[in-house]
Amino acid sequence: MPSDRCHTRFHFRTLLSLPILMVLYGNAWAQDITLPTIDVQGRPDSNANADITRDYKVNRVELGPLGKRPLIDTPFSVNTVSEGFAENRQIQSVREAFRFIPSVQGENIRPQTRGLQASVVQNTLIDGLNIAATTDYPIEQFQRIDVLNGLAGALFGPAQPGGTFNYVMKRPTAVPLHRLTAGYLSQSQWLAHADIGGYADPEHRFGYRLNLLDQDGTSYVDNGRLRRQLASFGGDIRLGPDTVLETNASIYNYLTRGLPGTFAVANNVVFPAAVDPTRVGYGQPWGGDDNKTTFLSGRIKHDINENWRFSVGVSRNTSDRASTVPTNTIRSNAGNFVTTAATTTFSLDTVDSNQAALNGRFETGPIKHDLFLATNGFLWNRYTPFTRGAITVGNASLGNPLVFSEPNFPDFKDRYRSVYTFQQSVTLGDTVALNDQWSVLVAVSNSWINTSNYNSVGSLTGGYHASGWSPLGGIMFKPRENVTTYVTYANSLQQGDSAPAGTINQGEALAPFRSNQYELGAKFDLGRINLNAALYRIERPYAYTGSDNVFSVKGTQINRGVELMASGAINNEWTVFGGMTFIDPRLYNTGSPQTDGRRILGLSQFVMNCLVEYHVPAVQGLTFTANVNYGTNRPTDYANTSFVPDYAVLNLGMRYAQLVAGKPVTFRFDVFNVTDLHYWANVTPAAQNGYNATGSATGMLGAPRTVRASLQVEL
C-alpha cells in the first residue's frame, strides 16, 4: 500500500483537551466581564419559538468587488448554504453542500453550474481569493457557501461560464462559543469536532475562531477507509476604530482507500447499469486519495468614512495530492473490464492570490451611486511527477470484481513545475439607482493572462500572453419593495483548458476564448421565505480531443435553461429549501452530423432537489426532515445513442434540541439513500476537460444507504 504521508495527526484526546481548556478560561473570564446579549447567526437554539428561517433564508451575501449586498438587489441568480443548514444536514464537505442546489453539479468533479464545468482555479474562491478546486474542502471551517450561477468575469476576472463558488470562512463570534460534536457514520467511523470562538479581551480587539476535526474509520466498503483531519483558525485584530485585520490559517488532511473507482467504457460499448458500490473489487484497498490542503490569508478592511471603505487581501493555497484511484474500463457489453491506476498528472497546485477594492456611495442630484474600483488575480503553479502514466493492474468483470496486488507507484513528490499561470484584472463598476424602482448595474474588467508550459528538464514548451475586456450590464426594476425583476448580459474572457493526458499536445494550455450569457430573472422576498426564478442562455467555445488525438476547440456549446428556487419558512411548522432546474445543453458546429445539435454528455435536462422540515408543535425542539434529489436520464455519448436512467434519492432524518443543565444540546440522526438505490452520481466526458475521439464517458457510483448520528453540546 502506498504509504500515507506524514500528516499531522489529531487524536481525540488532543482534539478535545484544547477546547476544554478554552472553555475553562472563558468561564473564568466571564466571571469578571458581563457582555451584552448579541444574536449570533448560525448558533443552534433549542427554543422552538426561535426564528426557524435563520438557517434557510439568507438575505445578504458578499459578491467580490460589489461588497455586501441584499440578495434581492442584485441582477444575478445566487444560492447560499449556511453554516446552520450544513450542521442540521450533517454535511461534511463542500461537494455535499452542492447537492442541495439543483443548478450545481459537483459530485467528484470540479464544481459547475448550468451544465458548464468550472476552471481549476478561476471559478473557486475562499473569501474572494482564488484557490484550487480539484481537492476536498471540509464544510466545518466555513460559515457559508455562496454560488453565483453563470458568468461573472466582469467581477472576478476571466473564468469559465460555470459559475462562481465563494467559500466564506468562519469569523470570531461576538459572544463566547464552545461547541463540541461527537458523531458516528456507517460502517464504523467516529467523528469529533470542536468549534471555539469569541474575543480574548473585553474591548473586542482580538477575536478568534478555532475549528478542530478528527474523523476516521471504515467506510461503506469492507476494509475501505475514510479519514478527515482539520485544524482551522481565524483571527480578527482591530488595529483602530475603523480598521480590522482578518487572518486565516488551515490545514486539511483527507485520505480514502478502497472506495469504488472510476468507470469508463471502450468504443462502441454501452454504458452499464449502476452496480452495488459496497462490493469489494470495484475499488482497490490500496487505491484512493491522499490529499493535504492548506490555506493562509490576511486581509485589512478600513472604513474611510460612513460612505467609503477600502480592503486589500492576499492568500496562499496549496493542494498536495497523491491519487491512486483505479479506473475500470469496460471493454465489452458483457461487463468485462480492465483496471488501471493512472498516476496523477498534477500532484501539486500552489495558488497565490490577491484582491483589493475601493467601494463608495455618493449622489449626483437625485441619482444614487454605489461605485467600486477593484483588482484581483493570482499566480498559479502546477507540478507534475517525473514518472506518470497508466498502470494496468488486472482484468475482471462487473459480475466478478477482483482485488489486485498493489502496483509500484512513483514518488508523487518527485516532480517538476509543468505549468505557470499569471492572471490579473482591474474592474470598475457602478450601481446607479435612478429612483426607488429602477436601477442599473454596469461593470467592466480588463484582464491580463500569461501562461507557460515546461517539460521535465525545465525547458519552455509553449504558452501565450493575452489580454481582453469582460463587460457586464444589468437592469433592475422593483414593482414593489419586496420584488425585483432584472435582465442581465455578460461577456467574459476565459483562460483556455489544458490538454489532458494521452493527447498529442497533453499539458498544452489553449489560448483564451469568450463566453456570453443573457439572463432574465425575478426575486420575491415574502418575509419568511425567498422565491427566485431565472431564465438564461449561455454560449461558449467547446474544446475536445478529436480523431487526430489533438485537444482543441472544435465546437460550440449552447445551454438554455430555467431555474426555480425557494428557501425559508412556509409557517411555524414547515420550512423548505430547494428548487428545480430545466436545462437544454447542446453541442453545435462539430462538423459531424452524428454529434451536431446533440445533448451534452452527462447532463440531466431536469433536476430537482427539495428539502422539507416539519417542526413538531407538540414536542418542543423536535424536527423531522425529508429530502428528495431527482434527475432525469443522462446521455453517455455525444451521439446520444446511450443513456443512464433517471434517479431519485430519498434522505430522511430528525433532530432534537433541548436545554440540558442549562446548556443547548442537539441530537441529529439521518439516513441517506433510504432505498439503497444503485445509481451513477455523475457522468462526465472521459477526459473531463471535454469530449474525446470515442465520445465515451466516465462515471462515479453514488453512495449506498448510510447512517449519520451526532450529539452536539454548547458549554
UniProtKB/TrEMBL annotation:
It is a multi-pass membrane protein. GO terms for molecular function: siderophore uptake transmembrane transporter activity; signaling receptor activity. CDD domains: ligand_gated_channel. GO terms for biological process: siderophore transport. Gene3D superfamilies: TonB-dependent receptor, beta-barrel domain, TonB-dependent receptor, plug domain. Pfam families: Plug (PF07715), TonB_dep_Rec_b-barrel (PF00593). Residues 71-164 form the TonB-dependent receptor plug domain. Its main location: membrane. PROSITE patterns: TONB_DEPENDENT_REC_3 (PS52016). This is Ligand-gated channel. Belongs to the TonB-dependent receptor family. Keywords: Cell outer membrane, Membrane, Receptor, Signal, TonB box, Transmembrane, Transmembrane beta strand, Transport. Residues 1-30 form the signal peptide. It is found in: Cell outer membrane. SUPFAM superfamilies: Porins. The keyword Membrane applies. Coiled coil: none annotated. Residues 239-674 form the TonB-dependent receptor-like beta-barrel domain. One of its GO terms (cellular component) is cell outer membrane.
